[in-house]
Specification:
Elements (H helix, E strand, L loop, with lengths): L3 E2 L18 H4 L4 H19 L11 H5 L2 E11 L15 E13 L2 E11 L2 E8 L3 H14 L9 E5 L2 E8 L2 E7 L2 H4 L11 E2 H15 L1
Parallel strand pairs: 2-6
Antiparallel strand pairs: 1-5, 2-3, 3-4, 4-5, 6-7, 7-8, 8-9
Length: 215
């Protein structure tokens, strides 16, 4: 069973490369120093943690862990419960940034796990490694396919609400999203899934209904 592990990584020195990246992470608005750390020390810390229990994290063996690659990353936002009374058709208006960045880690070309990092003092730290990134990987593919050429000029953000994730983007002045909703929560969210792009206005309606049910 996959599980998450929270760690604090104290860095005595951080090497920052001031280069230009031409990857999906630029599109997602990942700062250069965050990207550089994730590609280097962050991914190595990820491997070190997963190697403590490869099977527990869903990996076959040490070789698979050492062969993982870093995929796209996103700035993480959380919903702000105090904002849900606003009249808005924007999920971003209902959320707030966390200062964290979450990356998909690939194994064999498919989304496997998550690597989450944040700034800490003068450096960075890994705050989460593990989990199942396969659904979010599919959400990203759906978003790319739907946005087509527009994707390269769009900066998707990631909103997390417990174990539900939303990739959110602006297309021609209209906000859309692709949700990563676990099967057990799909019913209370109007049957939402990551098979297609949703208008954020409709998503907000389902979220408000779901919150009303648990009050």
């Amino acid at each position: 069973m996959r599980h998450l592990k929270y760690v604090v990584l104290a860095l005595l020195s951080v090497v920052i490369c001031f280069g230009l990246w031409s990857t999906d992470n630029d599109v997602a608005g990942i700062p250069e120093d965050i990207q550089h750390y994730a590609e280097g020390a962050g991914l190595e810390e990820f491997k070190k943690l997963i190697l403590e229990d490869p099977a527990g994290y869903g990996y076959k063996n040490e070789e698979e862990v050492n062969s993982v690659t870093l995929g796209p990353g996103f700035e993480v936002h959380y919903f702000d419960a105090g904002k849900f009374d606003r009249v808005t058709d924007s999920l971003m208006d209902l959320s707030k940034p966390t200062g964290q960045y979450e990356f998909i880690v690939y194994s064999g070309g498919a989304g496997k796990s998550f690597l989450s990092i944040e700034r800490h003092n003068a450096g960075f730290r890994v705050i989460m490694a593990g989990g199942d990134a396969s659904r979010l990987d599919k959400s990203l593919d759906i978003m790319k396919g739907s946005l087509s050429v527009n994707y390269e000029t769009t900066s998707p953000a990631l909103i997390k609400d417990g174990n539900v994730r939303f990739l959110v983007a602006q297309i021609n002045g209209k906000e859309v999203n692709v949700p990563d909703v676990p099967a057990e929560k799909s019913a209370i969210l109007g049957g939402m899934n990551n098979n297609h792009v949703w208008d954020s206005e409709k998503t907000i309606k389902f979220l408000r209904q779901a919150r009303a049910q648990v009050r």
